[in-house]
Write a structure and sequence with these properties.
By secondary structure, this protein is α/β, with parallel strands linked by helices. It has three helices and four strands. Strands 1-2-3-4 form a four-stranded parallel β-sheet, with no helix packed on it. Strand 1, helix 1 and strand 2 form a beta-alpha-beta unit.
Length: about 80
């Protein structure tokens, strides 16, 4: 059976109902700080992080650091 994957970036998202569309995918991979979480759905199957000094010390893990912890897979650079 084919599964559908969506990659969710950090650009502002203004499309009505986008959260429903994103959460309907079989696998949701998010990028970095996930500053559109909620607007682009809440599902997190995987996240790609660049754990550099800015992410660690300036953003201190970002405003969604608790949501990062619930990701099924974390990919780091």
């Amino acid at each position: 059976m084919k599964e559908r994957l969506i990659l969710v970036g950090n650009k502002p998202a203004y499309r009505a109902g986008l959260h429903v569309i994103v959460d309907s995918f079989d696998y949701v991979l998010r990028i970095s700080r996930m500053n559109n979480l909620g607007v682009t759905g809440n599902r997190i199957d995987g996240i790609y992080l660049e754990a550099n000094d800015i992410f660690k010390y300036v953003f201190k893990g970002g405003e969604n650091k608790n949501e990062i912890k619930r990701a099924k897979n974390i990919f780091m650079h």
